[in-house]
Amino acid sequence: MITEQKHRLWFLLSDFFATVIAWCAFNVVRFNTIEVSPDDPTILKYLAYPKVIIGQILVPAMMMGIYWLSGFYNRTLYKSRVEIMTTTVGSVGIGVIFVYFIALVDDPIPDRFSNYILLSIMALLLFSLVFTGRFFINELIHRRFGRGEESIRAIIIGRSNEIVDLIERQQRLYISPRHTIVGVMAIDGADHRLDQYVAIDWSDIDQKCSNLNPDKIILALKCDNATEVLAITRKLYHLNRPIQLPAWKAINLMARLHVKNIAGEQLSDINMVNISESYRNVKRVADICLSALSLAVLAPVFAIVAVLVKLDSKGPVFYRQQRVGYNGKLFTIYKFRTMISSAEEHGPALSSESDNRVTSLGRTLRKYRLDEIPQFWNVLKGDMALVGPRPERDFYLKKISEIAPQVAMIHQLKPGLTSWGMVKFGYASTVDQMVDRLAYDMIYLDNVSMLVDLKILIYTVSTVITGKGV
User: Fold this and answer.
1) On the chain, which terminus has fewer CB atoms closer than 10 Å, C or N?
2) Residues in CB range of 305: below 8 A, 6 or more apart
C-alpha cells in the first residue's frame, strides 16, 4: 500500500534531483553564453568556481523551499494533472525571479535581451524536469489505482440504509480512485447487510482508526438538519482525517463545496477551510517569524508585566488554561493572570466589565490586551496562529453547540491570537454573546486570505494602542 508519506517522499526526491540537474545544465548554458576569458578557457573551470559550487547547493535548497511553500506536498496522494501543471508553473516562475535577483543580476551578459533568453532557458529547464518527474509519479499512482492495486481506504459513518446506498454507488464506479471500505459505524444500530465490514463504535473509534489507518472518513447522512452532521463532525476532528459528505447531501450544509474529482464520486470535504495549501504554508512561516520577533522585542515588556502581576496580587504570574484547538485537540493557552487566583473555585464563569474577580492591574492589561502577549509562545509552538478563530474552552463549546452547532467548523483552522470576532465584537460575557461573536469566525473561515489577515492584525494593533480591549 502506498501511503501519503511514501508518496510525498517520492515527490521530494524527484523534485530535488530534477532541480539539481536543471541548475547544473543551466550553468553550462550560462557560461557558454558569457565570453570565456583567456585565463579560463573551459566551461568546466567555471563550474568548479567556489561561488558556482555554493550556488549548486543553495539554489536547489531555495527551490525546495518554494516548492514546499506552494503547498504541493501537503496533499500528495491523488493530484490532478492540471493541479500539477499550475503548481509547477507558479513555483518555478517565482523561483526563477528569486534566482535572477540573487545570483544572476551581476552576470557580465552583453545585452538585456540575452538576459531574457537565459531566464527563459532556466525556466524551461526547471519546469520540464520537475514537471516530468511529478507527472511520471502521479501517473504511476493513477495506474495503480486504475488496476485496483491501490485504493483509498475509508470509514463510513451514518445510518444503515445510507451506508448501503453509498457503498453500492462506489461499487458501480469505474473511474479511479476507488474506495476500499475498511470499517463502518451504523449509528442506528447493527445491520446484517454490513456484517462483512469491521464494525466501529464511538467507544473504540480512536483505536479502530489507528489500526485500520483510513485515508478519510465519509458521512452517509441526510443533511436536512445540519445539527446532527455537525455534532458528529465535532467528534471526528481529533482523528486528523479528511471528513467528507456526498456533495448532493452537503449542499444545504455549507455555502461552498470543496470538490476536486469531477469524474468520480462527488464527495465534499467538510473539514477543509477555504484556504489554499500555499497560503496555509505561508501563513505558518509568517506565524513563526512574527511570533519569534515579537517574543524578542517584547521581552522587556514581559519582564515588567510579570513583576507588576506578582506585586499586584497573590498567585502565579501566568494563567494556564485548556482550550480546544486545531482538529478539536486540547492545548494549554498562556496569559498573564488578570484575576484573583481563586476566580473559578466554583467552576467556569465568564467575565464582565464589572467583574470583581478582575484585579486592578488586570483591568489595565485587558484594556490594552497585554494579558494576551504570552500567547506568542503558543503561536511559535504551533498551537495557535496569529489570526484565526477565537479559541474556546470545551465547557463553553458544548454550551455554544446547543445553540449554534456550526461552532464545530471553527476547528478547521488553528485558533488565533486575534480574530475577526475579537476586533469586531470584543470580549463576551454571556453564551449568547459568544454565539453572536461566532458569526464573525464563520465568516472568516470562508474568507481566509493574506489581505484579510493583515486587516485583522492592523485592527488589533489599533485596539491595543487605543485601549479598546474592554
Assistant:
1) N
2) 336, 365, 370, 373
Q: Within the chain, what is the greatest distance between any pair of CA atoms?
A: 87
Range of the domain at 461: 277-466
Question: What's the whole-number average pLDDT of the chain?
Answer: 84
* 144 to 2, 75, 78, 173, 458: CA distances (angstroms): 10, 18, 11, 16, 50
According to DSSP, the residues that pair with 334 across neighbouring strands are 320
Contact between residue 214 and residue 183 where contact means Cβ atoms under 8 Å apart: yes
Reported as a pLDDT band with limits 50, 70 and 90, residue 167 is confident
State which of 102, 129, 146 marks the end of a domain: 146
pTM of the entire structure? 0.82
Last residue of a domain, one of 128, 146, 164: 146
Task: Give every CB contact of residue 66 below 8 A, 6+ residues apart in sequence.
Answer: 91, 94, 95, 98
DSSP type of residue 104:
I
Please check whether residues 177 and 257 belong to one and the same domain.
yes
Cα–Cα dist 149/1, whole Å: 8
Give 42's DSSP letter: S
Q: How far apart are the first and last CA of the chain?
A: 55
Rounded distance, CA 323 to CA 328, Å?
A: 9
pLDDT bin (cut points 50, 70, 90) of residue 28 is confident
Q: Residue 181 maps to which CATH number? A: 3.40.50.1980
**Residues 261-296 pLDDT 10s:** 544 455 777 767 778 889 999 999 999 999 999 999
Q: For residue 405, what are the CA distances in angstroms to 236, 242, 258, 437?
A: 14, 19, 20, 14
3-class secondary-structure state, position 323: strand
Report whether 133 contacts 13 (CB < 8 A).
no
With b for 16 or more beta-carbon neighbours within 10 A and e for fewer, the 446-467 pattern comes to eebeeeebeebbebbeebbeee
- 3-state SS, residue 331: strand
- In the chain, the number of structural domains is 3
- The DSSP output letter for 71 is T
Q: Are residues 140 and 178 in the same domain?
A: no
Which residue in 418, 423, 396, 420 sits closest to 407, CA to CA? 396
Residue 230, amino acid:
L
> In residues, how long is the chain?
470
Residues 78 and 105 in one domain: yes
